[in-house]
Amino acid sequence: MLFNVKVLIYLDILLLIGLTVFRWALVPSARAMIGPKVMALVLGTPVVGLLSGNGYVFHAYLACSVAFTSRTRDELCCTYLLMLPMVPGLQLDLIAGGTYLMVLASAGSMNIGALVGMALTRGSVRRTDPSLDILMLLLFCVYVSIEVRGVTSTAILRVVVQSAVALIPPYLLASRSAVDVEAVRRLLTYLCLAAFLGAVVAVFEAVRRWDLYEPFYGALRIPLKVTSSALSIRGGFLRVGGPIGDYSSFGLFLAVAIAILPALRRPFSRAGFVCLSAGLLAGILATQSRGAWVGLLVGFVAFQWLRDRRGSAIAVFGAAAGAYLALRYLLSPTSSLSETFGTSGASTETIDYRRQLLEMGLQQVAAHPLLGQPPKQLETKLEALRQGQHIVDFVNTHLFIAMVTGLLGFAVWFVVWSSTVLRVVSRRRLAAPDLRRSGLSIVPAVMIVTACVALAFTSIVDRNLYWLLLAAGFATPMLVRAPGARRGSPGALAGRSDLPGSLTTVRPEPAA
Question: CA Rg, the chain, in Å?
Fold first, then answer.
């Protein structure tokens, strides 16, 4: 208990520092977003997690915090985005009357809270895009087809329910809460707040080699199903998973948040924006997840390119490539930084593993091209890739989907995300000039590009799909024009500033 209290003190101090800095970074008119409710949720969650002593109590707290603390749909989505990346997976086995029901992760409890909250709160979008809903339904079918491969017929219903709890609420809440583009700006600002809080903690964890979120498992009596993260040392620093608990998943989340940050410039002062950017970059460096770094680079270049700043995009990509080649040439093979940047030590072994996985995986796709094969069967055929943890680590989501669902499932996966990106990009010309300059109208496309690139280096675990689902939900106001708006008119995709908690004082001209 004393150790948990010590962890709690450190964690809440770091979170309080993060809240204070973020509030300072905002312009005075936007500082109301860091109110008593946000302070209570951010600082109170570690208290319940470390001192309640019961996993079921903590999961109930997560669900209720999302469901019953908001009055409007917009506020509910803000709360959800703040809470979603705040705690590790913390999986519970739900059992009723001796019958095993399903596995419920912490994100699943928040998803259930989001569904309850949607039924209780006011406000919804006036129109949605049915084709986008159909694409998400197809994605859900692909995910279920992965989970049901190799399970008994009696477990199929359990898999469907578990998959529905994991995938449907994020998209449903985002698509029904993003009333307009200005609402997207407000919601994403809360997402960046959560990312910044995690980055502040991550930097401390990396330097001190102390995972502050791992004690949640012992405090809540939930088994830690993976190797302790304290063993993940690279280049002399801890590879931190932050509040999410896994360094690759946390790195992917930070990559998405940083890639879209330039579009959220308006609510921040100049010095505050620089400080916020530096903190987030320090956080993603602390993860030492090279896949997330690559995803961030490609996402940022895509953002600049789609904003018609193609010279800047080429310059950023060239500078990053040049810096990496220079580091490979200048760093000594025995340097700790050489391991961080993948030029020596265990890092080269990781690169070799990924290369072998790609080669052998493509062979399996060729052997079962249409419908793929169950994961358990794949593990048997890829026995040569089994690691020290006695698992085959499928650290390439796109390849994994092709191996398990075949080219048919992979085609659906590819079409869902590529078509969403292309439609958002094609509609960006309809946005008001201010939104085009800021890049806010292309944010969903950039989120998808960043996440999909990073997913080529990590597996389909934890909350990795959530950022894609949320991006699809945020695409709603970009793909559905306001009723009566003429094509190309300033009101077609213009944001509103008459909503509570708006982060801008600019009022667009009404649609013709």
Answer: 22
pTM for this one? 0.90
Terminal CA-CA length for the chain: 64
| Angular region, 222: left φ>0, alpha ψ -120 to 50, beta rest | beta
Nearest to 133 by CA among 506, 487, 511, 475: 475
Q: Domain for residue 490, yes or no?
A: no
Domain count, the chain: 1
Encode pLDDT of 364-387 as tens digits: 999 999 989 988 889 889 888 887
Give the pair of three-digit tokens for residue 342: 């993948």
d(CA 450, CA 96): 41
Q: Which amino acid is at 496?
A: R
Beta bridge partners of 104: 92
Is 407 exposed, middle or buried (CB count within 10 Å of its CB: 0-12, 13-18, 19+)? middle
Q: Half-sphere exposure (CA, 13 Å, Cβ side) for 338?
A: 13
Look at the alpha carbons of 449, 450, 455, 457 in this order and tell me if their dihedral is positive or negative. positive
Q: How far is CA 330 from CA 323, 324, 325, in A?
A: 10, 10, 9
The tens digit of pLDDT for each residue in 324-369 reads 777 766 766 656 666 666 666 556 677 888 899 999 999 999 999 9
Q: How far is residue 15's CA from residue 42's CA, in Å, rounded to a whole number?
A: 7
Where helices occur in 262-308 by DSSP H, the ranges are 270-287, 290-306
Residue 91 buriedness (CB in 10 A; 0-12 / 13-18 / 19+):
middle
* Position 90 in a domain: yes
The pair of structure tokens assigned to 458 is 């990590």
Separation of CA 409 from chain center: 23
d(CA 376, CA 380) in angstroms, rounded, equals: 7
Asked if the structure places residue 371 within a domain, the reply is yes
Q: In whole angstroms, give the CA distance from residue 286 to residue 235.
A: 11
Domain enclosing residue 98, as ranges:
2-307+345-479
